[in-house]
Amino acid sequence: MSEEELIFTTLAELSTRKMAEKENATGLSENKKAAKSGGGIAKRAKEELEEKTGQRVISKANFLRDASMKIIE
Predict the structure, then answer these.
(1) Cβ(2)–Cβ(32) below 8 Å
(2) Confidence of residue 66 (pLDDT cuts 50, 70, 90)
(3) CA gyration radius for the chain?
(4) Region for residue 26 given its phi and psi (left: phi exceeds 0; alpha: psi -120 to 50; beta: otherwise)
(5) What's the distance, CA 69 to chain centroid?
(6) With contact defined as beta carbons under 8 Å apart, do 5 and 28 qualify?
């Protein structure tokens, strides 16, 4: 995952949480609305950046765990 992908994912999560808090969302249907709204905020920001830079934000790179990292079970 690239730095840009991480930033926009974080923006989507933060926006969703803020929208859910603002609307006092409870239950699946209310939180689904907040998620659509929060995701839309990040989508528009991503599209604007891509338009202005002429570069795509989404990459084919994938985070691969370093073999020296320990897995906690």
Answers:
(1) no
(2) low
(3) 16
(4) beta
(5) 25
(6) no
19, 11 in Cβ contact below 8 A? no
- Which amino acid, one-letter code, is at 43? K
Cα–Cα distances (Å) from 3 to 7, 21, 52, in that order, read 6, 27, 18
pLDDT at residue 69, rounded to an integer: 62
CA 56 to centroid of chain Cα atoms: 15
At residue 65, does pLDDT exceed 80?
no
> Which candidate, 53, 48, 13, 52, places its Cα nearest to that of 34?
13
Q: Which two tokens stand for residue 69?
A: 């990292």
CA distance to 16, 20, 25, 42, per residue, from 30 (Å) = 11, 8, 5, 19
pTM: 0.76
SS3 content of the chain, % helix, strand, coil (to 5): 65, 0, 35
